[in-house]
Write a structure and sequence with these properties.
483 residues, mainly alpha, 66% helix
Length: 483
């Protein structure tokens, strides 16, 4: 429940557009579960049509264990005649057929057979059965006085020393095709289909879970979502294949040898074996998903690089405890086969968390640097561009003529309706300040200027050659008139 609340909080932090009420989060959870169920049903239907191939695939590990045990119990002859488990079964069938005939017919059957080596092994099985009917202290004398050739005697002696049983499969009778319930085979087919459906639909199942846990992904994160799912599916396949080819055969050898050591025949039911094999394979496949789970917890904020690196020893202890609980076998070898890869994957998760923290720190520093640059460039951006012309210099481009700055009316020399000449100091130009008619045509100039200047300071005789006063103080003007 705590993890579910944490997921809801993370979904709300994805962005304002992803903020939803609690009931809508439950609706998203319902949609995710519905998609998972529909995907599993479709994949189970596909796998149900290949149930025979799935059965043969799951039978192969236990058959390999049986073959390896039989091959280890069949010694070579002095002439190098090697026989495997399949050849041993064929030789035993030939010997059983020959035992139903009289000696002459038996010899004729052996001479007519196209495989002399198989005939040799069939004869060794017949002598082995006869020798096992005697006490152990009389078997050697029986073989020496039987009149058989030396190679056959040596072969039977080696079989007796290895504990071979001509009536069984040497190391016990392994029988897989026994069903004790009418519905057991049908339920077995359903179980195989469910197992195959999980395997082939695992990428889609992982995508549905990630879409619920990690909503509102950025564009760069969406681009790596499919590669991340491919990595997760690859880890699952690696775990399942590792269990199928490495761990499962060794676990079966352990149980096979343990039963044989106690003198118990291995009569394994097919349903029990399939349940054991599928659970074993799925657990190893899911255990290899440790990087995906840890990185999701890092994304949720429940784990960090500092936390994982400082609690590494506790994590290793927890991995051993979990491996001991989920491993179907009690032996230490199988426990190590599950725990050691999980420890290596946990170390990989620590490095991935470190790279993720480093990436986030670099992004934060870049964003802070860009924010500082924007703050520094903001006052400069508000200033006008010196290359742009002043709007006052382009009155034709200004929509409102009143927006163009006008000269102060108090200092205007010409009437507003008269145009300013190109050269205002030209005495010949009409309207010029030096033209004789200017003073007559602009009587208002004097009235406008008088409030600012005295009459004496404003009056200027143009015919006088005396230099007009320029910014003289009151004392200097008075002394000038006295002179």
């Amino acid at each position: 429940m705590y993890l579910f609340k944490k997921v809801i909080q993370f979904r709300e932090q994805a962005g304002p557009e992803h903020e939803k009420p609690f009931l809508e989060h439950l609706e998203d959870l319902r949609i995710m579960i519905t998609r998972i169920v529909i995907t599993l049903l479709v994949s189970m239907t596909i796998c149900f049509s290949f149930q025979k191939q799935l059965m043969e695939m799951l039978r192969r590990p236990v058959e390999q264990v049986r073959v390896s045990q039989v091959n280890a119990s069949l010694p070579d002859t002095a002439s190098g005649r090697r026989i495997d488990a399949e050849g041993w079964d064929r030789a035993k069938a030939l010997e059983q057929a020959a035992s139903q005939l009289d000696p002459a017919q038996r010899d004729w059957l052996y001479r007519s057979h196209p495989e002399p080596d198989l005939v040799f092994h069939a004869k060794s099985i017949a002598w082995l059965r006869a020798a096992r009917a005697l006490p152990e202290d009389r078997r050697a004398a029986f073989l020496q006085g039987s009149g058989a050739d030396r190679e056959l005697v040596d072969r039977v002696s080696a079989l007796l020393a290895s504990g071979a049983d001509p009536d069984g499969v040497l190391r016990g009778n392994l029988r897989l095709m026994s069903a004790l319930k009418p519905t057991e085979t049908f339920m077995l087919s359903m179980k195989l289909s469910f197992f195959g459906g999980i395997v082939i639909s695992f990428p889609l199942l992982l995508m549905f879970v990630l879409q619920f846990v990690l909503p509102g992904l950025h564009d760069n994160e969406k681009k790596i979502l499919w590669p991340a799912m491919a990595v997760g599916f690859g880890l699952f396949l690696c775990g399942a294949l590792f269990a199928y080819f490495v761990v499962l055969p060794r676990a079966l050898e352990f149980f096979y040898g343990w039963s044989d050591g106690l003198g118990v025949s291995n009569d394994w039911r097919i349903g029990e074996y399939i349940s054991f094999a599928t659970r074993f394979t799925l657990l190893f496949g899911l255990s290899f998903e440790l990087p995906v789970v840890v990185m999701v917890l890092v994304k949720l904020g429940l784990l960090s690089y500092e936390t994982m690196s400082s609690t590494r020893m506790y994590a290793v202890l927890a991995i051993f405890v979990i491996a001991a609980l989920i491993t179907p076998t009690p032996d230490a070898f199988t426990l190590l086969l599950m725990a050691l890869p999980m420890i290596a994957l946990y170390e990989l998760c620590i490095w991935l968390a470190w790279f993720d923290r480093r990436r986030l720190r670099i992004e934060e520093e870049r964003e802070a640097r860009e924010a500082e640059e924007r703050k520094l460039l903001l006052p400069v951006a508000d200033l006008p561009d010196p290359d742009d012309p002043d709007p006052a210099d382009r009155p034709d481009e200004v929509a409102d003529a009143s927006a163009v700055p006008q000269p102060d009316d108090a200092w205007a020399v010409l009437p507003p309706e008269q145009e300013m000449l190109a050269d205002p100091l030209d005495p010949e130009a009409p309207g010029s300040a030096l033209h004789p008619d200017t003073e007559k045509n602009a009587p208002s100039v004097k009235d406008d200027v008088m409030p600012y200047f005295t009459q004496q300071e404003f009056h200027y005789d143009a015919s006088s050659t005396t230099e007009p006063p320029h910014d003289r103080g009151p004392d200097e003007s008075r002394s000038h008139h006295d002179r």
